[in-house]
Amino acid sequence: MSVITLENVSKKFKGNTLFNQVNLNIEKGRIYGIVGPNGSGKSVLFKMICGFIYPDEGNLIVEGKLIGQSKNRFPNNFGIIIDRPGYIANKTGFQNLKELASILGVIDEDKIEDTMELVGLLPESDQKVKNYSLGMKQKLAIAQAIMEDQQVLILDEPFNALDFDSVKHIRKLLDSYRQEGRTILITSHNQEDIDILCDSVYRINNFKLEKVI
Amino acid sequence: MLRHQLAVELKKSITSTNLLIWSTIIFLIPAISFLQYTSGYMFFEEIELFQSIISGIIPLLFPVIVIFIFLQTFIQELKNNYITYVRPRIPKKIYLLSKGITNALLTGLVVFMMIFVPFIFAVYIEPKLGIIKYTPSSFLEDGSSGSTTFSQFLPLGELSYGVLYSLWVTINGVVYASISFSLLLLIKSRFIALSAPFLFYHIFNFIAGVLGHARFSPISTVFPFNIEQQPLWTVIIPFLVLILILMILLFCLRRSNEVT
């Protein structure tokens, strides 16, 4: 079953062509890797899929709905990490997640605490995020992406700044989500992450997505 | 969705830090101002005491005070990419609209209280405490102390004057805070966005003074206690300039939202 479909999508960003007539089908319950050099457009591709920016040409269809039309400007049920972790620096990790969770209001504090523990953060810690290490900020970003049981995860460099044990742990977590039927798109500069996790891999080359695996 | 987010934002805003800031603005600043008038000053009427309390530091720092009510917390969200992670949960337009409305509501409430609480204190509470020794109005040549702009409302009753004047300052506070909020979304430099209304306020005061039209200066139209009474229409002039600036900013904001 196709979750995300790109049909003849073209996109220029800041005057440069990034994608030209790109087609892609993302199937439910699989992990996809997107690779490419710096500046090739991985983040822009993810932003398009999330509905943050729209294609100049072509269609982006998420779960049967055309994204960009007035009633479907953004896909639902997406967990994302794009560009870098985002946070309110003078609040604790728990307070940050609670603020984000309050928008949808579908999970309670117990779920937030469980998610923090799942990614290796201490929910009861009164440490402000401004004092977090880069790895802890990355774990917080992962926590917000998964805490509401989002069914599609769009993760741009999810293993950035994580220590070896945490990388292993998050890999396991993502693999368990695949088995639950969640769909995951990741980018990583570490080929090992891509090789271990991904069912399909696409490389951005010459403004197209080339299937590698 | 907007109603739910508004409720979330208002609830989120009630933090111990914010309560401390709001209490300082509503109670501490006017209280400090009041203390300097407890001796060495001559007052004939309670209204004069009220006007003196809010004539000190408040008019000078007015555009800065309104920023501290809500925007200091919003800046924390603008930093460090936080809003990117809000977007999968709620359309950015609705989120920012809820922030803008919350900013206006809280700024309005706190600014209203900042003026109305000293009014209630000066007119209704202080006379019972007897801290200020009023000079009988018979000492005045014409039997009444000087009028200021907005004294036109006094015949409606002191309370009506207090409410109407507090509302006038509130509206101005909301407009200044909304201009800062819009600039924060349009300009990358947060420092410029927050300081622009303050600069506008004081530069407009300076230019109006130099041109010999101090009655049109923002400070004299929002806190008109340092010049003689003016017709009410004069206060509208700088206010209309502010409204025009806000409208232009909102138009730019709408266009930039359509692009992204």
Structure description:
The complex is a heterodimer of chains A (213) and B (260). Helix content of chain A is 32%, strand content 29%. Chain A is α/β, with parallel strands linked by helices. Chain A has 2 domains: 1-77 and 152-213, 3-Layer(aba) Sandwich (Rossmann fold), CATH 3.40.50; 85-150. In chain A, strands 6-7-8-3-9-10 form a 6-stranded mixed beta sheet. In chain A, strands 2-1-4-5 form a 4-stranded antiparallel beta sheet, with helices on one face. The longest helix of chain A has 17 residues, at 164-180. The mean pLDDT of chain A is 91. With 260 residues, chain B is mostly helical. Chain B has one domain. Chain B is 71% helix and 0% strand. Chain B contains 10 helices and no strands. In chain B, helix 2 runs parallel beside helix 6, helix 3 (46-53) packs across helix 6 and helix 6 (92-129) packs antiparallel against helix 7. Chain B is globular. At the A-B interface, strand 6 and helix 2 of A face helix 1 and helix 5 of B.
Q: Uncertain spans of chain A, ≥5 residues at pLDDT below 50?
A: none
Q: What string, H for helix and E for strand, traces the elements of chain B in order?
A: HHHHHHHHHH
Class computed from helices, strands and strand pairing of chain B: mainly alpha
**What Rg of chain B is obtained from the alpha carbons, in whole angstroms?**
20 Å
Helical run tally of chain B: 10
The biggest beta sheet of chain A reads: 6 strands, mixed
Number of domains in the coordinates of chain A?
2
**pLDDT < 50 runs, ≥5 residues of chain B:** none
Query: What structural category characterises the helix and strand content of chain A?
Result: alpha/beta
How much of the residues of chain A is beta strand, in percent?
25-35%
What is the domain tally of chain B? Answer: 1
Radius of gyration computed on alpha carbons of chain A: 17 Å
Percent helix range of chain A: 25-40%
Question: What is the number of beta strands of chain A?
Answer: 10
**CATH topology label of the largest domain in chain A:** Rossmann fold
Major beta sheet, strand line-up of chain A:
6-7-8-3-9-10
- Provide the residue-averaged pLDDT of chain A: 91
Main β sheet profile of chain B: none
Protein name (chain B): ABC-2 family transporter protein
Transmembrane segments (chain B): 20-37, 49-75, 96-125, 163-184, 191-212, 232-253
Keywords (chain B): Membrane, Transmembrane, Transmembrane helix
GO molecular function (chain A): ATP binding; ATP hydrolysis activity
